[in-house]
Design a protein that fits this description.
This protein has about 300 residues and is an alpha/beta fold. It has one domain (about 5-285): Aldolase class I (TIM Barrel, Alpha-Beta Barrel). It contains 11 helices and 9 strands. It has helices spanning about 5-15, 20-25, 65-75, 85-95, 130-135, 155-170, 195-205, 225-230, 245-255, 270, 280-290, and strands at about 40-45, 80-85, 105, 140-145, 175-185, 185-190, 215-220, 235-240, 260-265. It has an 8-stranded parallel barrel with strand order 1-2-3-4-5-7-8-9, surrounded by 7 helices. The longest helix has 16 residues, at about 155-170. The protein is globular and about 50 Å long.
């Protein structure tokens, strides 16, 4: 793990809150897509929704210092373009100097807390478009879960559409992460059938008054070619729950990354908490898959 000055971070937090705005103002920025047209992002917004578990470790992400060390390690690997997070994590990373020349996507709706009776009420409790623009970040992500048996879903769709419009008005990416979801024995489950993912794509792509700045963040499912045939929007693949073996996961990603319209990966727990705890190696493997053009190398 990297040598990080957490004492300085705590002192800045306590005595110089204005340091966050100063860090935003001086941060070196880059184009979202470089000449390769590919993107590798690390997701670190789980904790704000109460998601702390990784495999059989229910509190794996509860140690903020350990989490930050893992994210800083990932961001320091060659080919990693940036990060997705909530304000608490992104501002820690800013103060640590880890976001220089990085793409930064801000997480917007974290109100649907995991395991709560209101989990599908995905209210916008984190960033809004104005705050993202003020920080000089590159876009915002919305979690857009659609339950056809829950009348509250329409409020999520309305709020997501508003976010798409407000981000687009500022020339910022709207990264929409859609799912068809439902409750099973009281717990929210995402339907990962090909048909359900296609339906979520067609609904979410139509949100807002323009799709000019809309990107999709989609799970990798069995019929991924059919899923990608449902949209022309640029798409990143999400890592999903880190339950499969790494080799199985990488093979699935490699196949999906070759599809037209797929621009790269946005992965969190699978890479930050690999079974062997070797974050650098896991990130390097995923980055190599993203950087390999279809038809080049691979297995």
């Amino acid at each position: 793990m990297p040598d990080i000055d957490f004492d300085r971070l705590r002192e800045l937090r306590a005595h110089r809150p204005e340091a966050v705005a100063e860090a935003c103002a001086r941060r070196r920025r880059r184009r979202v897509l470089d000449a390769s047209g590919r993107l590798m992002l690390v997701a670190a917004d789980h904790t704000a929704r109460g998601m702390l578990s990784v495999r059989d470790r229910p509190m794996a992400m509860a140690d903020r210092y350990d989490l930050l060390s893992r994210v800083v390690t990932a961001l320091g690997r060659t080919g990693v373009d940036g990060v997705l997070g909530t304000a608490d994590i992104l501002e820690d990373l800013l103060l640590l100097g880890a976001l220089e020349d990085k793409v930064v996507i801000a997480s917007m709706n974290r109100g649907g807390l995991q395991g709560s009776v209101f989990e599908l009420d995905d209210r916008f409790t984190a960033y809004d478009a104005a705050a993202i623009a003020r920080a000089g970040f590159d876009g915002g992500k919305t979690l857009t879960r659609i339950d056809f048996d829950d009348a509250g879903t329409v409020a999520t769709l309305e709020a997501s559409a508003r976010a798409v419009d407000e981000l687009a008005a500022r020339g910022l990416i709207a990264m929409v992460e859609p799912f068809v979801s439902r409750r099973v024995d009281g717990r929210v489950r995402n339907d990962l059938s090909t048909e359900a993912v296609i339906r979520s794509v067609t609904i979410s792509a139509g949100l807002g008054g323009t799709s000019a700045y809309t990107w999709l963040k989609l799970p990798v499912v069995e019929g991924m070619a059919e899923v990608m045939a449902a949209t022309t929007l640029p798409t990143l693949l999400l890592g999903g729950d880190p339950d499969e073996s790494p080799d199985e996961t990488y093979a699935t990603w490699e196949k999906a990354l070759a599809l037209p319209g797929v621009r790269g990966l946005i992965v969190g727990r699978t890479l930050l908490y690999p079974p062997d705890d070797d974050v650098a190696s896991a990130v390097d493997t995923a980055t190599a898959l993203v950087r390999t053009r279809p038809g080049e190398g691979g297995s």
